[in-house]
Amino acid sequence: MSVAVYLGRFRHEDLKSHWASAAAIMGPPPASTQSAIPASLAASTTAKHMSKIHSDSSTAATADKVTKSDADWRAELTREQYHVLRQHGTERPGTSPLNREKRKGTFLCAGCGAELFASGAKFESGTGWPSFDRPSAKDAVSEHDDRSLYMQRTEVRCARCDGHLGHVFPDGPRDTTGQRYCINGVALRFKPDDG
Ligand SMILES: [Zn+2]
User: Fold this and answer.
1) In sequence order, which ranges of the chain are alpha helices (DSSP H)?
2) 48-74 as b/e: b if 16+ CB within 10 A
3) How many Å lie between the centroid of ligand 1 and the Cα of residue 153?
4) Quick one: DSSP state of residue 92?
5) Do 118 and 170 touch, CB atoms closer than 8 A?
């Protein structure tokens, strides 16, 4: 039964008295809710709330977060990029041309263009995936518990667009950080210094 049919059962006068009695039960209109909280308190509550959000985000990179609809990502990325970045996929080892990339430059996120890894951090891991001992900035990537595939791993995502990049393992070069950022080449774009 539609609302129109339901209301149609009331004569106009019935409706008027109906709303009048509802108003009596519910009390005056809620103008008082606005003034119940002093403006200063309301402002400070908001400020506190905002500062909490800010401290939670812990990274400067999240200030310019890139968020897009699934349809937009699907339209912008190649099928392989979409599979890795947005569907937590993994490229076949040894398939990325970036495994052989030796020039000086910066590895950017293939999704949003954020700077993720400097060429100086790249090393030969022998795994078939581009590997780095550190991100270009501490807050360039975010790390997340990943318990998929019956393993406990630490997933690495682009901090700006949340795109899945790969995983980080504690078996990297001992003479530097000891970390191995094992990254899908398809999630990266290389920008040479001289290009
Ligand atoms: Zn990104």
Assistant:
1) 3-8, 12-26, 31-36, 39-57, 70-76, 79-87
2) eeeeeeeeeeeeebbeeeeebeeeebe
3) 20
4) P
5) no
Is the CB of residue 158 less than 8 Å from the CB of residue 64?
no
| Options 109, 112, 158, 182, the catalytic residue | 182
Q: Per CATH, which fold does 70-192 belong to?
A: 2.170.150
109 is catalytic: no
**pTM for this one?**
0.69
CA of 20 to the centre of ligand 1 (A): 57
Maximum Cα interatomic distance, the chain, rounded to a whole number of Å: 87
Report pLDDT digits (tens) over 21-48.
Answer: 443 334 344 444 444 444 444 444 444 4
Instruction: Name the residue with higher pLDDT: 160 or 53.
Output: 160
In angstroms, the Cα distances linking 64 to 60, 72, 79, 84, 97 are 8, 18, 25, 22, 30
Residue 166 Cα to ligand 1 middle (Å)? 12
Mean pLDDT across 155-182 = 98
In the chain, where the domains are located = 70-192
- Ligand 1 centroid–CA 5 distance in Å is 53
How far, in Å, from the CA of 31 to the mean position of ligand 1? 45
